[in-house]
Amino acid sequence: MALVGCVxxxxxxxKRRVELVLLNEKLRALxxxxxxxxxxxxxxxxxxxxxxxxxxxxxxxxxxxxxDAVAAFTQACQLAATAGDAEAELAALxxxxxxxxxxxxxxxxxSTLLRALEVSKPMSASGVGDAAVLGSLGDVYAExxxxxxxxxxxxxxxxxxx
Length: 162
Prior knowledge:
By secondary structure, the protein is mainly alpha-helical.
């Protein structure tokens, strides 16, 4: 009887391992796609006033000056909205949410990410929204303890990346 249990557990464990390997490969591919998108976004950012403010915010964020980053990204959001540049506004909103989250303001980051999702929906081919925003939403929901919404956001993230 014990032998049967060991065999069943071994088969079950092997199946889970294969599933984890496949999931890991998918996630690595998604991260590579996101890195390529981020690099192209960074190059495009530098040529507009909103892009310059976003770059300033990114530098402040990297330096750990979260208050300065929030100020720069907020300015970038305003400049982009005034210029009608949805892509620049989306980049600024994502940066603003990251800075707010690092400041410990999960509620503000959530609000900013929801705004970013609304800005990104018309730009996405699937109409779901920006995949990076969906992934960040999942992170914020998880940090806030709302695992159901986190799971939903992560599922939408995976769908948007495929």
